[in-house]
Amino acid sequence: MNVGVLALQGDVPEHLRVVRELVPDTISVRSARDLDSVAALFLPGGESTTIARLIEEMGLWAPLRERIGGGLPILATCAGLILLARDLAPSAFGRDPPTFGVLDVRVRRNDYGTQRESFEAPVRVEGIPGKRFPGVFIRSPRILGVGPDAAPIAWRGEEVVGVRAGPVWGLTFHPELAGDLRVHRKFLTEAGAIL
Ligand code: GLN
């Protein structure tokens, strides 16, 4: 079974490298045809407005929407989460992109400030026992509210930094930059891509 990383913009190489440690033949997804062949998909971090524009240029809104509607497992980080959110609160820094609206969260882009305000903090992730997960936050969105169709799965202190709606996960931090495979492993195990 194929696993894919949406490879339009952002930290695609980092994501591919980490996912390939667990599923060696993971592919880059750039077209509807690539998308057809995957049974789980990663939406990497990057610049959500740019990724949204490239999704438009590649004609991927409808195919992605269809696969999401069909229950495709997705792990979306940072900009990926923004692109899935149902509700974007206007950001103080920059425009807001169109979104798929499938994760019932209210999110604000760049809500921790500019690039300089990027930081690392320990995160508790549901179903991942042992030491706290190293949360890498890079000009992250903030989850302002979680609606009834999504459930929190990750916390930085009291603050929700990850949610899921069935097989669709959205995180404000970057597990692909943490040097810790536990989040990817849990997602891919649930998706049936690894044992
Ligand atoms: N600030 C970016 C955006 O709003 C997200 C940052 C990231 O993905 N690391 O799209």
Task: Characterise the protein shown here.
- The chain is α/β, with parallel strands linked by helices.
- It has one domain: Rossmann fold (3-Layer(aba) Sandwich), CATH 3.40.50.
- The protein is built from 6 helices and 12 strands.
- The strands form 2 sheets. It has a 9-stranded mixed β-sheet.
- The longest helix is centred in the first third of the chain and has 11 residues, at 12-22.
- The protein is globular, with a radius of gyration of 15 Å.
- The mean pLDDT is 96.
- It binds glutamine.
Bound molecules: glutamine
Structure classification? alpha/beta
CATH class: Alpha Beta
Would you identify the regions where 5 or more consecutive residues have pLDDT less than 50?
A: none
